[in-house]
């Protein structure tokens, strides 16, 4: 009877483990709240001026690349942890977590120092000038200087989420957003007896909310993990585990850095179109981010499942899971996109009363149906390729499609054919669809099956502890 009961419990645990909806809905809400925080910043700063919004947008373009560098370790560790969990090796998963947190802290401190010393020079490279530069310089010094906090948050949140505790990370996001909104209200506009700081207030609020979020994540790490991260795991860095983290993390982050670098070049294009075009891109980008939100949640949930399935050597299940996820993500993207297109003018009017900005924003949002469907396929399939250990292929294809195709195409459309912001949107859409088709056939080829991270001999080692139920 005991054996039968144990088998039934194992099957129930496995069913929970592979439940995409259970994993995805908290991730969706967490991402929604994260994006909402960005929109709240934009909305509140729009009360200061359109130039303030443009300055913060330019600064965030640079900061976002730093965050992607931090994901070298965070994302790489999450995938390695997922495969070790699938192999029922929780002690190794805990060691990977400790190593990842230490590495991210070191990189984060280096980046924080870089922003404090060279933030202004980076803005000069983007051709940011005048009042917009002043706002951007103030923001990048404060938020960039505190980027090491985000480094630790990335490592902690990715690990906790990979263990299946997606609801817990969502609750922390709720707390962080509440603190951030209250902080914005107090510091941007000078309420509760605090000084009216404008852009500086938004930056201080961002750093403060991240600090509180970090402390909660540290507490949560030792509440939810079945095998705890021992202090020695932070100090004794393992060449074996770091190698596996970087094997996935470096290509993954490089592909993302190339993408964001191309976005920076597109931002440079837009600066030559004027301040109104800069503000339009920021507002339209904020609205468009909600279109692919559900796809990002499905992509993250799918990658957790694929990592575990590959670690458990259930590759046929992983293969089928990805195609099913792509169908659900595409359906959600199309529905959300059509709703936003229908209400594009009122949505743009929430941020600004400048009729030219509203008109340009409404025009490019119409093109989102082309861009976001391709982006959706990439989010799900590329995330799954990484989770399976096949992280280099998306980088090679990204370099060809993004750098060699979309940037020259964008230059042609914007400056030679004079299509303005619409040219930027079409160039990005062309890149997304090119890569989407390539990634689809890569997954179908099953070449990713040769890239798993847990070697054959590791599968035969005795498991350290039973796998946790999600």
UniProtKB/TrEMBL annotation:
Pfam families attached here?
MatE (PF01554)
Predominant subcellular localization, coarse grouping: membrane
Q: Which UniProt keywords apply?
A: Cell membrane, Membrane, Transmembrane, Transmembrane helix, Transport
* Subcellular location field: Cell membrane
Which superkingdom?
A: Bacteria
Where are the bilayer-spanning segments? 20-38, 58-84, 96-118, 138-158, 170-190, 202-224, 245-270, 290-310, 322-344, 395-415
Q: How does it sit in the membrane?
A: Multi-pass membrane protein
Q: What is this protein called?
A: MATE family efflux transporter
What species is this protein from? Paenibacillus lacisoli
